[in-house]
């Protein structure tokens, strides 16, 4: 068959993925990451290490007395990152003051309320006039930082994760894992997973590999799944080690390399967040968590309408009785 015959049989819709790709790159991408955990667990440092940026340069560090006095506050930092012509608008939502007070009862409520407010704003924008330019500020992923110093999950961890599990993709992270030995990390991970199962907590579940994925991708996917909860370290310090400039933490006994998979799960977490599962996190947010919120809103709205109609009927009936008595 000649080229002219092939051209006649070629319709052209095979180029659709290229068209979508060009349009997406031109528009750019948005991603909102929430970090939840007690102060001092290295949340800011880890985020800066993940995206090679400095989101917290203007932040004021509070002393112990100020931490006890403050309430939980939500702060959002936005940075635009460009890599090889692809633009990403990254929103990082921090929960300052979480877990720092003496009485932490309901300290996670403002976190839950913030997520709901973003869902509600998106719902209103969807039914608004300017649907073409909707700003998606919904939280796509929540990195939940677990202290390395306890035996497992604390009661506050359980309550917070339970309150957020149906609203956001939770990824548990063991913070400052360089303070633990290799065996301690393994035991802590096993205990955390056991407690997650015991309390029936829902964390982000990696999707199964497609049948057409190659062996290397399947191997990486298995490594990611085995790494949960991710035991991580972060550092803004760049040091020279054997002629290599790397992000690391310096100690009297040696150097802990941030991006060394033998030292921490940092690389696995970054690969999962950015290179392999960012779109799936966004799809889960839209298709599962947002749809769940929207369904609940519609149910409440319909119930309110039914009650409203019932009350109006009763009001009209009472009014008719009163009018009849006055006339009689």
UniProtKB/TrEMBL annotation:
Its main location: cytoplasm. The record marks 149 as: Important for dimerization. Belongs to the TRAFAC class TrmE-Era-EngA-EngB-Septin-like GTPase superfamily. Septin GTPase family. GO terms for molecular function: GTP binding. Residues 27-300 form the Septin-type G domain. This is Septin-type G domain-containing protein. One of its GO terms (biological process) is cell division. GO terms for cellular component: cytoplasm. The keyword Cell division applies. InterPro entries: G_SEPTIN_dom (IPR030379), P-loop_NTPase (IPR027417), Septin (IPR016491). It comes from Hucho hucho. The keyword Glycoprotein does not apply.
């Amino acid at each position: 068959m000649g080229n002219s015959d092939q051209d006649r049989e070629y319709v052209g819709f095979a180029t659709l993925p290229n068209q979508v790709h060009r349009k997406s790159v031109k528009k750019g991408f948005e991603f909102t990451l929430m970090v939840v955990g007690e102060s001092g667990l290295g949340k800011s440092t880890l985020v800066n290490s993940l995206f090679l940026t400095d989101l917290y340069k203007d932040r004021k560090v509070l002393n112990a007395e100020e931490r006890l006095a403050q309430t939980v506050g939500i702060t959002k930092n936005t940075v635009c990152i460009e890599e090889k012509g692809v633009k990403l608008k990254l929103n990082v939502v921090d929960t300052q003051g979480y877990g720092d007070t003496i009485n932490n009862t309901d300290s996670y409520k403002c976190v839950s309320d913030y997520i709901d407010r973003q869902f509600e704003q998106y719902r209103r924008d969807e039914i608004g006039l300017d649907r073409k330019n909707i700003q998606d500020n919904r939280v796509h992923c929540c990195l939940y930082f677990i202290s390395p110093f306890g035996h497992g999950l604390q009661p506050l961890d359980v309550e917070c994760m339970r309150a957020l599990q149906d609203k956001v993709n939770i990824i548990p992270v063991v913070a400052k894992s360089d303070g633990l030995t290799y065996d301690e990390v393994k035991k802590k991970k096993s205990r955390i997973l056991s407690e997650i199962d015991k309390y029936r907590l829902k964390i982000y579940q990696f999707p199964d590999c497609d049948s057409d994925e190659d062996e290397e991708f399947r191997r990486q996917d298995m490594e990611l799944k085995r790494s949960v909860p991710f035991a991580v370290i972060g550092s803004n310090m760049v040091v020279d080690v054997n002629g290599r400039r790397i992000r690391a933490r310096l100690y009297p006994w040696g150097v802990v390399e941030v991006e060394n998979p033998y030292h921490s799960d940092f690389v696995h977490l970054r690969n999962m967040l950015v290179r392999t599962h960012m779109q799936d996190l966004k799809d889960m947010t839209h298709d599962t968590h947002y749809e769940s919120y929207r369904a609940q809103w519609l149910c409440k709205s319909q119930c309110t309408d039914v009650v409203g109609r019932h009350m109006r009927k009763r009001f009209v009936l009472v009014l008719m009785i009163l009018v009849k008595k006055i006339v009689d």
